[in-house]
Structure formats: C-alpha cells, structure tokens
Amino acid sequence: MPERSQGLQTIYRHFRVPTEFILERSESVTHSFGSYMDPGQGSQTYICWAHTLCKHIELHFDDNGFPFIRDPRGSRQNHGDWTWLRSGYFLRWKNPGAEALQDTEVTFIIFSATPDLKMHLQQLVSRPDWRQGVMDPFGLLVIVAENLFLEISMTINK
Length: 158
Description:
Elements: H1 2-14, H2 19-27, E1 31-37, E2 45-55, E3 59-61, E4 67-70, E5 76-77, E6 84-94, E7 105-111, H3 115-125, H4 132-135, H5 138-156
Antiparallel strand pairs: 1-2, 2-6, 3-4, 4-5, 6-7
Helix pairs in contact: 3-5
C-alpha cells in the first residue's frame, strides 16, 4: 500500500492536483464537482474535477418474481450489499481557446475507470476526429457522465 500512496502523491504533485480533489477522494464523498482557473501556470489554465460514489446494487428475483438484492459474497439480503462504484476524474486544460492543436495541452486522469469507459475512450482516440477532445475537452466529461448513467442503469436493470 505505501508504494501506491507514493505513486499517487507523485501524480498529484506532477499535475498540480488541487488539495480539494485529494480531500474529496480520501473522504469518499458521494459526488462532487469543482473547477477554477490555475493562476500559477503563466498562461490560462482551467482545472476541473469530479468524484462519484454510487451504491452497487444487483437485483435478483425469487421464484415468485419478487425482487431481492444479493450480496456478491453470496448471502441473500433485503437491504443491499457492501460494494460501491467509486471513481474520480481530473481535467487540466492549458491555453483553452487556442486556434492550433499544438498550442493547447490537455491532461485527463481517471481514477477507477470502468471497462466500458476505457473502451469508449480508446475508441475515441482511434477516430479521425479525436482532436475535438483536445480542442474542447469538456466533452470528455460528457462521455464520463453518459458512462456513469449507463453503468448505474445496467447494474439496476440486469
């Protein structure tokens, strides 16, 4: 565990991740969003982040068609299980509004990405219009929101 902590601290320092993001991550907030302009870069830099923490629920039905929630550890419960869907997103956009691709810089870090989100983003970068993600990276947050909605919807509607 200490190696992981050191790795995260290195990432946080390198990308100048705001203290608010780190605190929200360590406190396991249910959801949050923050943003500001970073004054320390010498050029215009937007920073925004989000956290989500959602209860993982799998509905099952008994022989009479009544729903119940099954604990992934094997026991049947009528109130829930002990698992959660937890993720964090950090976006840094340097020189927004730049007219040339080489004049802007985007960093997008995802903590605990779902397999579907990874696949979606891999498909995005393989497309010819991937540059849209650099010229308007807030669109990446739309992809994240859509993925979270689908993940929760699929979990409940299995």
